[in-house]
Amino acid sequence: MRILTPALVLVLASCSNGSDRFGLSRADEPNNVLVYNNASEPEYIDPGLATGHPDGRIIGELFDGLTEYDPKDLTARPSIATQWDVHPDGRGYTFHMRDDASWSDGAPVTASDFAYSWERVLNPVNAARFAQMLYAVENAELYNTGRIGRLLQESDGFDAGLPVELVSANTFRISGETEVKDAGGTVVATLPEGHVVLGEASGDKVNVQFNPECSFADLGALLDCDPLALTGSVAADAAEVALPRLDSRVLSATSSLKNRAGQVLTELERGEVVTVLTWDDSGPFVLYGTEDLYGRVSADALADPRSEHVRVEFRSLPEFNWEGIEPEVIEDTATPPDAPPGGEPLEADDPEPDELTTGWVALADLQLEPSLLGVRARDAHTLDVRLGGVAPYFLQETSHTTLRAVPHQAIEAHGPRWTRPENIVTNGPFLLDEHVVRDKFVLVRNPTWWGTGELSLDKVIAYGVDNLHTSANLYKAGYTDFVVANDLPAEFIPILKEKKDFHTAPALSVYLYRFNTTRAPMDDAKVRRALAMAINRDDIVSILKAGQVPASHIVPPGLPGYEGPEGPKFDPEAARALLAEAGYPDGEGFPEISILYNTQESHKLVAAVIQDNWKTNLGVTVKLENREWKTYLKTVNGMDFDIARGGWIGDYLDPNTFLDLWIENGGNNNTGWSSEEYDALIARAAAEPDVEERMRVLAEAEGILNEEMPFIPLYWYVWAELKQPDVRGLEPNLMDQHPLRWVSLDR
After folding, report:
1. Per-residue buried b or exposed e for 185-195, using 16+ beta carbons within 10 Å of the residue's own CB
2. Which of 556, 569, 546, 540 is nearest to 494 (CA)?
3. What is the C-alpha end-to-end distance of the chain, expressed in Å?
4. How far apart are CA 623 and CA 378, in angstroms?
5. What is the pLDDT of residues 505-553, one digit of tens each?
6. Which of 224, 29, 27, 48 is CA-nearest to residue 119?
7. Whose CA is closest to 51, among 123, 110, 113, 127?
8. Strand locations in 182-243 (E)
9. Residue 592 and residue 203: Cα distance in Å, rounded?
10. I want to staple 560 with a disulfide (CB 3.0 to 4.6 A). Which of 62, 262, 338, 496 is the partner?
11. Could you give the C-alpha distances from 572 to 349, 538, 576, 614, 706, in angstroms and in order?
12. How far apart are CA 476 and CA 327, in angstroms?
């Protein structure tokens, strides 16, 4: 099928088929080929890196998980894991995996594949924006933020092998172009932002040892440079402690980079920097990031020129106790997402963090390794997971695409190019047959998938059209079987409401605008609140027409046991007063700012309403900027915007899925905002075993968001979609998850 031209779809839109359905019948089409429009070209089809809904719809069919979403109630149904045990203390699971799951290259899917995949998401070298999905796992956040290691030698009376949390170091990162002065106040050097020096805090200054020619962050330069050539001091607010990366090394001599089979991939020159992924009896296995190559190098050629100078302060952590985790087996069922995982809350004997003993250790005596994470492959088909606290939603998370296994063999062989059709290795219900960028994905039944005999579909065609009118009219002309949720022009909605193939359903999703709080004037909470209170959300939902609900706070209503606090509502007078307090009476002196949104008519309509509201109610002028999906994501992730359109679909049925987004350095925060009080509440909720108290703490955290307003909640979605009557198994649910393994065509 060829994509219809805009002129032709406009003709189609003006025509009526005289039916009680919007779309022409596809009854004469094959009953084993499903066709739909995926709304946009995915940014990634790598489960560990993707974040978008268009990405997830493709990934969910190519890759299998331990569990899969039930198409109706979203509970976790067995998939690669046929059953699971809940640990007696309620803080962990053991997953028992089927022995007939395989990769498309014939290799078996094992527990080690899941352990590898989860570590890959959490390894900071990969910068996975959905790493927080795994923060419920013991030590996952520390691992992802580079704040954990293992002692290689006895140090300060602590035994070798002890896991430790890194809390400080004698290295400092210069936070802006900064003058270094000697004891007499004379400037001896000016250091650029990001330069890392050796230092010691002393009152209102940091005494530093440094060399402008080499930073402790540049291992290659350190090979031939004395990093302590000069001394001086900088203001305390001009430098911050910089924890060293434990996995960074530099080649002190030329070395071959070889794959696991011993074949030479390339020669690495002296001074090349690598990331050590694992250490084992065969030596270090590394990622050479410059060319995205994986392989082994000679251990003798690796060096860390920081090690003789850098020391790290640590706090001891308890070692995992994998004993006594054999509970009652739960077969072919799932714990409801609003219920605790089972068992009594852990009565830990471990001391509280502030009671744990601290010490100092040389950098050379620390190592980062995957065994520090609370996940292990007990054997080929048994995966043990320990949780760091209370996570009643974790089982449901195992259905999420981020937690699906990826093939280490393909990633090591091809680097970031492993998802190209000629390289990709998958383990899901469907195989990638064809991918034409910005046109379509063609998926075909995977004959080696363990459940292939239960599939009704042999082929899936997913187009990547981001024009709402084109998408709707492809369906109207009988070219597609359904239109994905909310991929419809607003002006079509009144007509569609009269059609039998139009459906709406409640959604666990919010539409919002992010502020870049690192830019003035959005760095002022008064300005942010003023802008929020100057928006009439009723104006927005009235043009969208599908039943969206105005939102004054982020967490949608309807989650069991949770009631979110109301945020600021439409109040132009109060908004003007706040803006005046911030120094912009009637908008005078307010700089022109921009609203960024991804290309789609509905986003443009919303932006135009807000543009008008701010001009009318505050005297503030804004520009509108649109970008195609991939460019928009890169712009938002790079924090190169003033205000950006955003949205969030819950990843599990718990308020935490909306609230932990905003912790400091969260992968999807993308506002620059942070609050120690907020982060502490999110951490407290994660450790709280009492369900009611946990919900109260989460509501308190949401109250901080309402005050600080790093984003503006605009409305809560409803799902609005078109579906041919012969499509079976595509059930409405809160998270718009529709595994195609359960979809069939009755024609």
Report:
1. eeeebebeeeb
2. 546
3. 20
4. 56
5. 999 999 999 999 999 999 999 999 999 999 999 999 999 999 999 999 9
6. 48
7. 127
8. 187-191, 196-202, 205-210, 230-235, 239-241
9. 41
10. 338
11. 54, 14, 6, 9, 17
12. 54
Helices (H), strands (E): how many in the chain?
17, 39
Task: With CA atoms as reference, report the closest residue to 646 among 513, 508, 507, 466.
Answer: 513
> What is the C-alpha to C-alpha distance for residues 197 and 341, in angstroms, rounded to an integer?
47
pLDDT at 338 over 70: no
Write out the DSSP string of 544-598. H-S--EE-SSSSPTT-TT--PPP-----HHHHHHHHHHTT-GGGTTPPPEEEEEE
Q: Is the pLDDT of residue 419 over 60?
A: yes
Measured CA distances, 41 to 54, 469, 571, 628, 630 (Å): 7, 17, 39, 9, 8
Q: The whole model's pTM is what? A: 0.89
101 vs 81: CA distance, rounded Å: 10
Overall average pLDDT of the 733-738 stretch: 96
pLDDT digits (tens, 9 = 90+) for 138-173: 999 999 999 999 999 998 889 999 999 999 999 999
Q: How far apart are CA 25 and CA 27, in angstroms?
A: 5
Strand partners, 286: 276, 295
DSSP E strands, 79-126: 81-86, 92-97
Residue 429 pLDDT exceeds 50: yes
What pLDDT does 280 receive? 86
Q: How far apart are CA 619 and CA 7, in angstroms?
A: 39
Alpha-carbon distances of 354 from 123, 317, 366, 400, 429, rounded to whole Å: 26, 11, 22, 34, 48
Residue 674 Cα distances to 106, 474, 656, angstroms: 46, 44, 17
As a whole number, the mean pLDDT across the chain is 92
pLDDT at 17: 56
Q: Which two tokens stand for residue 231?
A: 């001394």
Whether the pLDDT of residue 8 is over 60: the answer is no
Which residues touch 57 (CB under 8 Å, ≥6 apart)?
38, 462, 484, 738
Instruction: Catalogue the E-assigned strands of 636-680.
Output: 643-649
CA distances from 83 to 331, 513, 580 (A): 5, 41, 60
Written as six digits, the tokens of 126 are 């990969």
The partner residues of 268 in beta bridges, in order of sequence, read 255
Question: Radius of gyration over alpha carbons of the chain, in Å?
Answer: 27
